[in-house]
Amino acid sequence: MMGERGACLILMLKVVVLYALVPIEKGWLRRMPMQMIGTKKSNLPEVPEALQEPGLKVPAIAWKWPRSFPFGKDGFDVIDMDDTDNAKEEGIKGLLDEDAAEALAGHYERHLMSGTDQVLVIDGSGSGKTYIPSSSSGSEIWLPPVNVQVVSISTWNIERGTEKFGTEKYDAVILLHAAESLRSPRSAFREIYRILKANGRAMCIFTSLEASKNTIHKSQISKMWSDYDDAQRLWVVGSFFHFSAGAPAAVMDESNTQLVQEVWGAGWRSLRGFEYLSSDGTNVVADAFASLTKSNNEDGTPLFIVQADKAAPAIFSAGPTAALDTELWIASAMEEDDKRLAATRILNLMRSEITWSIEDQTRFAISCGMALRSIYQVLQPMSRVIATPLLAQLASNLAPKWNLKSTAQINALKEGLGLIAPRDLFWKPLGTLTAKLSVDDKLWLLADLIPFFDENRFNTNQQGVPIALLPIVPDILPATIDYLGPTVFPEFPDAKDTVDCQLLAVELIARDYLPDVIQATTTEQVQQAANRFIAWFPTLSKDELRQALDDRRSYRDIASEKAELAAIDPEAAAKKADDLRRALQVEAMLNEIARRSNQSIRTST
């Protein structure tokens, strides 16, 4: 099968774009390239006085994130356990002691709307307990939720994504001791995002790893969860939120950058982290609250909560930047860099249309956002072999002409990329004729050809090839290459097999033939356009042809075998270097935390 696909347009190169990917140091994905906090006994970041409230340790303004999800897939496997039978026996007891249960009940009263309608509790402890109080414990009136649905984490993992949980059904979703058992946390949090109503709240509740001993809960904990201390897990869970629907598309409106950062660009809002039943002197309100419980009891169960609210979709009047960003919140096949690069290109393209109104721009942004989500469902497997900026370039070039209802376009894109076997009539011979082109240039050619596969706009033959493209492989491209070789590049004996000759040929076809054939509806009209092109291009002078080649080179970066990311996207390269620097700083910080912890243990003994 691989040999059959080898002649497709993209994979004709013996070495694909692996050379364009910056090598990543082994182990980097398991590190925490974000501002970390120390062990449970170390000081957490001080909460500004104006933001202080019971238990709050990480306000919405304090989170720091890398550019992409910092954890590898291997970290979410289950750790090996030898006490499974004992775990099943002890699991029904739950994980929270009396003080922690009381603190959680108080948190519910403060952070769940009184009398809210639908609440889903995903239980990872095996106890089935929710700790939601049946009535208010304070002076203010608070009513419990009307409907509380409890499912086990195992049931959730099997049935999420089905109609059982509906769409935008719940006012709140609570993961109770469940985040530590997720095998695909971003996918799970995207599902939570889907089933939450707009402005609905998600809570992720967990306790210390030590509290999980001898319970069914411990038998389900992922390896990664055990690698970090309690305070660091606040950031781990925060990253589940941020990198599921919260990462900004980096569509920065130059006229109001702060507004974009603070208002638009995050599918989750008000992301906050709480810690109860410990006192470190950094939060006066929290310390006062903790003093009401056994906060100094070292045997007590600590309680950690990370929560956020699902953002309401941007209203149409908010403009194109907000509209595009909203569409990309739920783009599950796109990584953060995909969103940033593709969205930036879409906005630049939109702003080049100076006659468009804001309403026109917003409609264009929404259409392209929906198209990007569809296109990346196809492109996602190629992310291992083609550099992120090149895929973003292809996607943003395709988006304005992408038909969400066209299965033929999807299949044509897969064929051109070599994801499915290419048709003998078109893609395989096209790949042979353009074998010398760089991946970058082949992606540009794909962007020129794929729109013609929209069966709702263009007629096709019985094999599904658009009639407008039929003359390219047997007639137009060979004739153009055969003429350009000795005419423009006489210094090369085999000029037709050179990159420049093939590049100039496809540039002339894309620039002059394809626009001429857009309106053609019959094979006769197509053949007339092909004949006009074949008769026209030899009338160009050598200087004009050279200029056409230079023009082509001017609007794209040349992808060579030794190209690095910096040559394709200097900004991305610079930020990758910064992420690596942060990772090394975090590693040093974690080592220092471990050193201090060991020193403290030695001192106490």
Question: What do you see in this structure?
Answer:
- Helix 17 crosses helix 18 and helix 17 crosses helix 19.
- The chain starts with a helix and ends with a helix.
- It has a seven-stranded mixed sheet, with helices on both faces.
- The N terminus is likely disordered.
- The longest helix is centred in the last third of the chain and has 35 residues.
- The protein has 605 residues and is an alpha/beta fold.
- The radius of gyration is 29 Å and the shape is elongated.
Which tags fit this structure?
605 residues, alpha/beta, seven-stranded mixed beta sheet, 21 helices, 7 strands, 8% strand, disordered N terminus
Draw up the topology in text.
Blueprint: H1 2-5, E1 56-58, H2 84-90, H3 98-111, E2 118-123, E3 147-152, H4 153-159, E4 170-176, H5 185-195, E5 196-207, H6 230-246, H7 257-262, E6 268-276, H8 284-290, E7 303-310, H9 320-329, H10 336-351, H11 358-379, H12 388-398, H13 407-417, H14 427-433, H15 439-449, H16 472-488, H17 499-517, H18 523-536, H19 542-554, H20 565-568, H21 570-604
Parallel strand pairs: 2-3, 2-4, 4-5
Antiparallel strand pairs: 1-6, 5-7, 6-7
